[in-house]
Design brief:
The complex is a heterodimer of chains A (363) and B (246). Chain A has 363 residues and is mainly alpha-helical. Chain A has one domain (10-298). Helix content of chain A is 69%, strand content 2%. Chain B has a single domain (5-244), classed as Rossmann fold (3-Layer(aba) Sandwich), CATH 3.40.50.300. Helices cover 37% and strands 26% of the residues of chain B. The chains are: A mainly alpha (363), B alpha/beta (246). Bound molecules: adenosine-5'-triphosphate and magnesium ion.
């Protein structure tokens, strides 16, 4: 039996829609409540705003993974690489905006370049001072990488665990590359000490609120894109590929083309998530490429419920809430808890958290 | 090869680890022809369909559909040339409904963007409904394929084959798991399709083959043993020997 519930009856669909609108409204209130005086009962602290903003970007990443894995069966264990590349593109923009305010006071070169003795900006840094260009690159570079890797893998019919290993190796290789100082991306320190974005000083309530709302809009937009795909005939082709790829070919569909299409969209959404993440956390370094990050993101989706878009979002929020709580309460336990959670969900909740709610409506 | 030949297999061999599943097989099917293929288990009937549809590459020989060399194309391209296939083991998409399975098979642009923008218009819906009627699954249209019985899955696969509107239909053991009445219905359906389409049917059920009332090819150990009407092949001593002599 397959796990997807792509044709929900009308009533649960309405309930779902109302629940989603409710969740977005609650999220949208957070930065507003942050503006209330600190003594007020409804006041929400800065920490909540920034951490929720971060989780929203994780939810976008989870949607991207779910589209490829939950719908089309492409289990990528390297989506963290697309996220990190989007983050680096935005990081390059933020670095350029520091300008002469760096420790060395150089008008164009970021501190780490001055330190490493660069005389001028490497060619691939040109243009990143312009926001639209940097934003475009945050989407384009992950998309292009997915196009190349996906083309080679899908054309050679690399699927299942082999594809997972391949993508895991990809993110690991990128991590090693970004650790190198001579790559021109700041080596193991990465980028930090950002000052401003779009004329706003970062680390102010205004910037936090703007980035929060931008992320929320991006999440709603990504959800809309994924919904459009999943309810279309393309969504049904994806499910068919997931369950019986070779049979789909005999119906005349080029599964290579379809998988590539979805993989690239998924990578672009991951890049978008990374680009929104970096200005909110104020740092990007090669650790974002670490294989563990990609695996963790897959676990969010498994916990929430793959093959349903709500599940992906729910998983990203709930697992990260648990992580935030546990890493303060008992930091050593987190990895065990994560592993245990994954095993438990695989064994007892194959449909994830959404399976708990939708059991009643399923036959 | 006459100008009416639509499918042309000449001297085709398929070798699996030294075992010859097809052994210099030659077979020609005419436009609009209905052809039955029989033969003992392991004769190479399914392997022959695998070769035509691009699943298996022949080790030697020529495989042509009209003027195209099929060995140069992949499964999807061959399907789009107009060759449809029903598998021996019915394979339908369990997570989708009966209706959605048919919609997926319906002849329409196959690219990802075309699928994203696809709208089920009146004519397409009508075709699906007609087919649902034909395969007797109208009442099950909105059930998931996962809960169908074996016989219903057979019908759904036949329905999917019809939706593709192919010029050449390859039908592997269509009546396994069907009742006598359904078997008759299937024979009538295939006879009706032939004429405008070419149909190649593999079956063990000789009553069914008789009902098809067409030329019969007997395969054995990867090559043609006998060819003719059902009565001719049933009285051919070579055929009697492989069927009874084992
Ligand atoms: N992929 C494969 N690898 C190795 N041997 C194979 C493969 N596919 C088929 N064979 C062998 O080739 C022979 C022909 O198989 P095929 O499935 O074509 O027979 P068939 O005529 O369809 O038989 P049946 O009536 O049982 O369906 C069998 O002996 C089978 O074991
Ligand atoms: Mg067979």
């Amino acid at each position: 039996m397959s796990t997807s519930s792509i044709s929900l009856p009308a009533t649960p669909r309405l309930t779902l829609r109302l629940a989603l609108i409710g969740a977005v409204v609650v999220l949208a209130l957070i930065p507003l409540l942050n503006q209330l005086p600190a003594g007020s009962a409804l006041h929400v602290g800065d920490f909540i705003v920034s951490i929720t903003g971060k989780w929203i970007t994780y939810a976008i990443l989870a949607l991207a993974i779910d589209l490829a894995w939950g719908y089309c069966g492409i289990l990528s264990l390297g989506h963290g690489a697309f996220f990190a590349l989007g983050g680096y593109a935005m990081g390059m923009h933020l670095m350029r905006l520091i300008g002469p305010r760096g420790a060395y006071g150089h008008p164009t070169l970021p501190d780490f370049m001055v330190f490493l003795g660069y005389q001028e900006l490497p060619w691939y840094w040109l243009g990143f001072d312009i926001f639209p260009y940097a934003f475009f690159m945050a989407l384009f570079v992950p998309g292009l990488l997915a196009l190349i890797v996906g083309y080679l893998a899908f054309r050679s019919r690399i699927t299942g665990v082999y594809l997972s290993i391949l993508t895991q190796a990809l993110t690991y290789a990128l991590m090693l590359a970004f650790f190198r100082n001579d790559m021109g991306f700041g080596g193991n320190n990465g980028f930090t000490d950002f000052k401003e974005l779009l004329g706003m000083a970062l680390n102010t309530p205004l910037a936090r609120a703007v980035l929060f709302y931008a992320s929320l809009v991006a999440l709603v937009g990504s959800y809309w894109v994924c919904t459009k795909i999943s309810v279309s005939k393309l969504g049904r082709v994806l499910v068919a590929i997931r369950d019986a790829e070779s049979r789909v070919r005999f119906l005349g569909y080029s599964t290579t083309q379809v998988k590539l299409f979805v993989f690239v969209i998924s990578a672009v959404l991951s890049g978008l998530a990374g680009a929104l993440y970096v200005p909110q956390v104020g740092i990007i370094n090669p650790g974002e490429f670490s294989p563990g990050n990609s695996i963790e993101a897959v676990i969010w989706v498994a916990v929430g419920g793959r093959g349903t878009l709500v599940g992906a979002v729910l998983g990203a929020f709930s697992v990260n809430a648990l992580k935030t709580w546990l890493t303060t309460a008992a930091p050593d336990l987190w990895l065990f808890a994560l592993g245990g959670l994954f095993v438990a969900v695989t064994l007892f909740l194959p449909k994830g958290l959404v399976g708990l709610f939708s059991r009643k409506v399923e036959k | 090869m006459t100008s009416h030949t639509i499918l042309y297999l000449d001297d085709v061999s398929v070798v699996f680890d030294g075992f010859r599943a097809l052994n210099n097989l030659s077979l020609f099917v005419d436009q609009g022809e209905l052809r039955a293929i029989i033969g003992p288990n392991g004769a190479g009937k399914t392997t022959m369909m695998d070769v035509i549809t691009g699943k298996t590459r022949p080790s030697a020989g020529t495989v042509k559909f009209r003027d195209s060399d099929l060995t140069l194309f992949d499964e999807a391209a061959i399907a789009n040339m107009g060759i449809g296939r029903k598998f021996q083991k019915p394979t339908v998409f369990d997570a989708l409904t009966v209706f959605e399975n048919l919609e997926l098979a319906l002849k329409a642009p196959r690219g990802p963007v075309a699928c994203l923008r696809w709208v089920l218009a009146g004519e397409a819906r009508k075709r699906i409904e007609t087919t649902l009627e034909e395969i007797g699954l109208t009442a099950r249209a909105h059930d998931r394929a996962a809960i169908l019985s074996h016989g219903q899955r057979q019908w759904l696969e036949i329905g999917m084959l019809l939706m593709q509107d192919p010029e050449l239909l390859l039908v592997d053991e269509p009546v396994a798991g069907m009742t006598d009445q359904e078997t008759e219905h299937t024979a009538a359906l295939l006879r009706r399709i032939a004429g405008t389409r070419s149909v190649v049917v593999v079956e063990h059920d000789l009553e069914f083959v008789r009902a098809l009332d067409c030329k019969v090819t007997v395969l054995c150990e990867g090559s043609v043993l006998s060819e003719g009407t059902i009565d001719q092949v049933q009285n051919d001593p070579k055929v009697i020997e492989v069927y009874l002599g084992r």
